[in-house]
Amino acid sequence: MSKSTKVLYNGDCPVCRFEIDHYASYSHKNQLPLEFEDLNRCDLAPWQLSEDQAARRLYVLNDNQLVSGIPAFLILWQQMPRYRPLAIVVGLPIIRQLASLIYNSILAPMIYTWHLQRKARAQNAKSN
């Protein structure tokens, strides 16, 4: 079975890594057609994203279509039997809009800010 869905995530982010490691483990155990790529350890050229763009949110490449944010989570969850009920619920129109608003306005910017702070601390540590 070919892998037609790829997930791009920030493996240097503890929150992202924890969640995606769980999905990757589940996917591997169940032989699901999913690939997981850490933006810090892969070639971003095929994704057509800069490192900064990729660090801002979750991206999924599914059947050659790049999707981000809550729609990306929905694609990911739909492909994992354990998470299909979550995809159905979050995919409902009002819940999807609310989840997208929370992700886009609060969660993704907050996690991205943490990412920038971690990078700045690492740069400061290198220069000292």
Structural features, described:
This protein is of the alpha+beta class and 128 residues long. It is built from five helices and four strands; from the N terminus they run E-H-E-H-E-E-H-H-H. The protein has helices at 14-29, 51-55, 70-78, 84-90, 93-127; strands spanning 5-9, 34-38, 59-62, 65-68. A four-stranded mixed sheet has the order 2-1-3-4, with helices on one face. Helix 1 (14-29) links the parallel strand 1 and strand 2. Helix 3 runs antiparallel to helix 4. The protein is globular.
Question: Which properties best describe this structure?
Answer:
single chain; 128 residues; alpha+beta; four-stranded mixed sheet; 4 strands; globular
Strand order, sheet with most strands: 2-1-3-4
The major β-sheet equals: 4 strands, mixed
Question: What overall geometry do the principal axes of the alpha carbons give?
Answer: globular
Fraction in beta strands: 5-15%
Number of helices, where a helix is a run of at least 4 consecutive DSSP H or I residues: 5
The share of residues in helices is 55-70%
Radius of gyration: 15 Å
Oligomer description: single chain
The class by helix and strand makeup works out as alpha+beta
- In sequence order, what are the helices and strands, one letter per element? EHEHEEHHH
Q: Ranges with pLDDT <50 over ≥5 residues?
A: none
Task: Compute the average pLDDT.
Answer: 94
